[in-house]
Amino acid sequence: MGNTTTDPREPLLRIDDLEISFGSASVVRGVDLSLNEGEILALVGESGSGKSMIGRSILGLLPTPGRVSRGRIRFAGHEITAPSSPEELRLLRGRSIGLIFQEPLSSLNPTMRIGEQMFEAMRLHTDLSEAQIRDRAIEMLRQVRLDRPETLLNRYPHEFSGGMRQRIMIASVMMLKPRLLIADEPTTALDAVVQREVLDIMEDVARASGTAVILISHDLAVVARYADRIAVMEKGDLVETGATRTVLARPAHDYTRRLLAAAQLGTPSPVSGRPGAALLKVDNLSVDFAEKTFLGLFGKRVHHAVRDVSLTVAPGEFVGLVGESGSGKSTIGRAVCNLTPKAGGTVSFDGRDLDTCGAGEEQRLRRRIRVVFQDPFSSLNPRMRIGRIVREGLRHEPGLSAAERQKAAEDMLEAVGLSRDMAGRFPHALSGGQRQRVAIARALIAKPDLIIADEPVSALDVTIQAQILALLKRLQAEYGFACLFISHDLHIVEQLCARLYVLHKGRLVEEAPTPAIFAAPRHPYTRRLMSASPRLEQGDDGLQLAETELPEIGGAEADYYDATRPEDPYRLIDTGQGHHVALRSEERRAG
Amino acid sequence: MTFVSRLLGKTNGLIGAVMLGLVLVVAFLGAVWTPYDPLKSDLLNRFAAPGLAHPFGTDMFGRDVLSRLMRGAWVSVSIGLSTLVIPVVLGTVLGAAAGYFRGWFDRLLMMVLDALMAFPGLLIALGLMAVIGANRYGVILALSFAYLPAVTRVVRGSVLSISQNEFVEASAVMGNSRLYTLIVHILPNCLAPLIVLSTMMFGWVLLAESALSFLGLGVPPPEPSWGNILSEAKAHLMRYPLLGLLPGICISIALLGVNLLGDALRDELDPKSASAPSKEAI
Fold it and tell me: Full-prediction pTM beyond 0.90?
């Protein structure tokens, strides 16, 4: 078994008829896969498809009680599924097969300096001197495009952002020049702009050292850019493998077609509002958070999460609020619902200021605003039945009998595409998509005028995302509510929203009708956001990866307001047809 | 599968339930019927060996040991159960208020409780007993306050973590009052840790009551409790070890049963461990 001579025709990795079982249930069945030296393979599937399990089985690291119940995995002459000793596998890991995890926050040890963590594997697997190892580490950090690498080695993980940490992970894994790199959703926890950077770097480093890569992801559009070949998993079966271009252009399997359809999302159909006075009007909203500094010795530092944001939503209109995490987009939604106190500014609903209209009036107005949250697993009370959860939305509607409420709840469940008998179940018996439908039913049952949807689809699989978006659109046509749609994904808001607000570090940097912003994004931040989010589009030869080509715009980048330098003077100017963009104000810059 | 059958399907759950069940049955029987009057002494028949008339023999006053253990079981168990009432009710109210409304009340309460928790519960109970006086109600009251901080902290902690959930915010957006949200949405989700803690606490109270009675600060003789039976036996342990062994075994069985059942309950009620090896997690 310990045959280490490599047949030149033998691929680097060969998986034959692999079956992985947990107890009596198999989670991966009959998978055949091969990977050549230096090749990048994308392993794509939705949650529960078994894609991560394949990655782990290649390392011999299946979580208990999982085991390979049939088939074999052969890597560079080693039988992974039948190693001659546990030692054989251990030496392969790190040295020949590297692994990058999804969560950069937990894959680096917070108590160890970056340098120590990078040296660890080198000391174990090579006999280089300390000085040589140090030089290699610095060289690797330079390759992943971190500035002044020699100063980084003595720092701790918490001093770096998620994207930088993931680059450090790549550097420390690739330092050993493994022959195979397994990257399990390496950028899912990161924002679009950072995701693009990290994946670009990973591809460069891997290509430079001739390392083969298995890129595991749920997002076909993201990985299509990098992969030579794509393998598609569905519920434990490998349904399709092929060259990236072929799979995109001529998918053979029905499931692949559905995934692709979900990734391209179809033609946008924005929901424009009715003319007339604004339903929701936010003026100069600011929200501050107090950050406690070290032991509270130096008092509190105020963090301006939202600064001077004004926006409007017309009756029946879908308005998008876009930005990366930490941009303050969710905070605006929460401040509108009074879940977070305001530091300044006003929120008016239906023409009345919610702060000054009196408590009773405020309550009546607020009942016409409902929220759909991001995480369908935490937004439903686990101890309540679905029927009661939906019915609760009617609690403040007077004059309804218990039977009427029950019937209304069941009708609403039907309207969101669930069966009536689901009313008797508990949330844990439902899938993520079904739970999100319940959350929508609860929000809509009282026929509100405004829905605040805070990342309502970002926790869901792509095929489910498309269904939920279609559902929102259909329900809007039926009930006529307006929606403030908060999302980090430009292509999702493009689907439904008539107007967009782009937010960067608490400041609005651009506001425009959706078609205008996609045709000619002006602010540098919007442009970066747009070129970072990948898209599939219909080409001459079936689907292909869209190359986002942005038109030239006038003016130097320095003219635009840069939210990373908040003290700069700021003003939002109208460039025509409701297209506003943030500039540095000239008059005060001189002073 | 229902909750109960899942619980009893575990080895520790089943053994724990059987042991605790046995103790409870003996205790409730001991409340209404014992073979002899547990208080009636028979000085002509002291230290009788176990036999047909007295299955566990008689003690230094010639009282039937089995009858005393049965009545003692009732005294100990009834003290244990009554002692749960005050900490659970008051602790839930205080913990929920502190965890949900936060602010100065929370800070003040936590300061007081932290100070209390710096002392072992038994020590606080001893101090209180010295003030209240050594009797059954004194034991209940003293132990209640000794265990109040634990319950308050556990409830406060779960309220804090449950409050992070989006369904709590969803309730606020629907226009529900804070009190309604607390009672309907938050507290039912805190039940699981509270049930586990109460089970464990029942065991601690049994032990603490025995310890107090052993020190002569618990239930006053001649009324039997497991602790004071053990205490009375200590003078004669060298010659008649059975007198001390029997109440000791009773206490051990009760404690072991409670702990096994508590562990099984925690495994079953804790959502984290319940979902760990299931198929959905893959």
Answer: no
